[in-house]
From TrEMBL:
It is an enzyme of class 3 (hydrolase). It comes from Frondihabitans cladoniiphilus. The gene is yccX. PANTHER family: ACYLPHOSPHATASE. The lineage of its organism: Bacteria, Bacillati, Actinomycetota, Actinomycetes, Micrococcales. Residues 68-93 are annotated as: Disordered. The keyword DNA damage does not apply. It comes from the Bacteria. This is Acylphosphatase.
Length: 93
């Protein structure tokens, strides 16, 4: 098994009120990642994803490619975090 990594992605654009969190949770579950997604007060969406590197990259690529069709992603800022051992992926409020 590969090392487990965790990344935080801040997604900018028209990403709130368009089903972005719901779709992100579904995509993360499909890939098999742990972590969470939540709206931020500044209008961005924050995603933390933990798993094997190639799986985390799949979700980051999906985010960069625009996420759900109803969203308009302008940019995604990614930072590295240490793994926390989360189990499952959730939507936080």
């Amino acid at each position: 098994m590969e090392d487990v990594i965790r990344r935080r992605a801040i997604v900018h654009g028209a990403v709130q009120g368009v089903g972005f969190r719901f779709s992100t949770e579904g995509e993360a579950d499909r890939i098999g990642l742990a972590g969470y997604v939540r709206n931020r007060f500044d209008g961005t969406v924050e995603v933390e994803a933990e798993g094997e590197p190639h799986d985390v990259e799949k979700l980051l690529r999906w985010l960069r490619d625009g996420g759900p069709s109803s969203a308009r992603v302008e940019r995604v800022d990614v930072s590295e975090l240490g793994p926390t051992g989360d189990a499952g992926f959730e939507t936080r409020h």
